[in-house]
Amino acid sequence: MRTVLQLILGLALVALLSSCAGINKLELMESAELSDGWNDIVANGAYCSDGTDYNFSVKPGDPAKALLFLQGGGGCWNGMMCHPDLNPTYSINLRNDNPENMNGIFDFENRNNPFRNHTVIYIPYCTADVHLGSRVGQYTVPRLENFPGGEFEINHMGYPNAKMALDWVYEHLTNPSEFMVAGSSAGSVAVPVYAALIKDHYASARVIGLGDASGGYRGSNFNPFEVWGIGDVLDQSPRFGSINRDGLGFYELFIAAGQRGDIVLGSFDTKEDSVQKQFMTALGQDSESLFPTLKANLADISNQTSNFSYFVADGSFHTILLRPQFYSLTESGVSFLEWFEELMYTGSAENVVCESCN
Description:
Elements: H1 5-21, H2 25-32, E1 39-47, E2 53-59, E3 62-70, H3 79-82, E4 118-123, E5 135-141, E6 150-156, H4 158-172, E7 178-184, H5 186-201, E8 206-212, H6 224-227, H7 231-234, H8 251-258, E9 264-270, H9 274-282, H10 291-304, E10 308-313, E11 330-331, E12 334-335, H11 336-346, E13 352-353
Parallel strand pairs: 3-4, 3-7, 7-8, 8-9, 9-10, 10-13
Antiparallel strand pairs: 1-2, 2-4, 5-6, 11-12
Helix pairs in contact: 5-8, 8-10
């Protein structure tokens, strides 16, 4: 891993000068009516899967440098997975959600946190549609032992909810020079889509997208265009015009977003991510090993984009960005934090693959 300290210092100086030319943190707080620390922003007309109210959160910092984080939390596409009383495979609402309790890149007391001084926009997740849906899902559950069955609905409204946050961003961050879009698990799937939308809006900004723990999904046994209505969000950018709407591998979103070469993209996965393997089974994929499909997806993205880097660690744990291990993980002699910073500050990083993967 090459040393990036000088470049980091240079970019920090450029960002400082840029922020001086625009508004500063205090001016952002005043204009957007924010307090220091986390602020919950009520999103009127936005709802979770169960119809409860939705909000996103903002932590003000340097307006020239922004982080938009898409929370993870499962997903569903049939009655047995989606019914809220039948061990649902997703987060139903935001009752237990609080970014102040999170670690990793949300540990803003850590001096090594590259986002310590950023303006942070946190988009929580409670719609079971990887933040991309725009439809009310109608499902049926058969009569079961101790369960009457029947029809029910849930709100797959991930895109309208996220759009509320994007509208706030576009209103209050007028000229960011650096914009990181990151997401874990289900949020990772949506990273290339929202990175593309942000790049389309802020043409001169350096936009980086980092997907955390969704790299192994090769195909699916359902059509997300039909079940979740993801066409609405993809229609917002011409980058996704060639996406096959009869079937979609989530990795294809990275390819479509990255083909122009104007967005830096990256991914993190573990060799045998246990959560991804569970959802691979639900998607109708062979889940004996994650690595073959992960390897195929990474190769396809790399071959069809010019600014994509990946980090594959040994093990089966799920996600890295909100874990303390964000700062300590080392794979094959490479620090993940250093790899992440190199991708963030230089636009590329050497691919890392665990020794046992080879």
